[in-house]
């Protein structure tokens, strides 16, 4: 067996992409397209892609509406879990709130909670970090089904 094969035996494949954009509502579409394109390249099924794109759209939308000047979005696929991470940075003149269930805004985090295996939200430096993990059914290099 070659040394390269020995080193990779038992290692779970991991893939990561990052994009930084102005934290603006009109950039959320770009984030969704960026996400869908990479998830397709990584071999995620259409239902998995749709769930991840919906979650990342909600998190990026919150960053655009309530965040600072920039947002950095990252996707990390490790095995059969994808972590989506949105960090907004810079000054914000809005406070963060989950919103009332009867309010037309504020339902996005409920969608995230429903689709994600886990979610974390909180301040980070001069901004805010929103993270969520989703279990996926298929991905290139994800290994055998568990």
TrEMBL record:
Gene3D superfamilies in the cross-refs: Histidine kinase-like ATPase, C-terminal domain
Presence of the UniProt keyword Calcium in the record: no
Superkingdom field: Bacteria
Domain named Histidine kinase/HSP90-like ATPase: residues: 21-125
Record key words, sorted: ATP-binding, Kinase, Nucleotide-binding, Serine/threonine-protein kinase, Transferase
This enzyme's EC code(s): 2.7.13.3
GO molecular function, one term: protein histidine kinase activity
UniProt enzyme class: transferase
SUPFAM superfamilies named among the record's database cross-references: ATPase domain of HSP90 chaperone/DNA topoisomerase II/histidine kinase (SSF55874)
InterPro entries assigned: Anti-sigma-factor_SerPK, HATPase_C_sf, HATPase_dom
Family matches, as PANTHER family: ANTI-SIGMA-F FACTOR RSBW, ANTI-SIGMA-F FACTOR RSBW-RELATED
Protein name (database record): ATP-binding protein
Record organism: Streptomyces chengmaiensis
């Amino acid at each position: 067996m070659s040394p390269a094969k020995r080193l990779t035996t038992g290692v779970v494949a991991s893939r990561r992409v990052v994009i930084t954009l102005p934290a603006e509502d009109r950039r959320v579409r770009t984030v969704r397209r960026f996400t869908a394109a990479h998830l397709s390249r990584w071999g995620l099924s259409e239902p998995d892609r749709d769930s991840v794109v919906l979650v990342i759209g909600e998190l990026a939308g919150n960053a655009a509406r309530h965040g600072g000047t920039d947002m950095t979005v990252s996707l990390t696929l490790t095995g059969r879990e994808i972590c989506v991470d949105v960090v907004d940075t810079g000054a914000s003149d809005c406070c963060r709130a989950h919103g009332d269930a009867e309010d037309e805004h504020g339902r996005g985090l409920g969608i995230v909670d429903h689709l994600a295996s886990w979610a974390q939200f909180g301040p980070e430096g001069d901004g805010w970090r929103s993270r969520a993990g989703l279990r996926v059914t298929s991905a290139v290099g994800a290994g055998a089904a568990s």
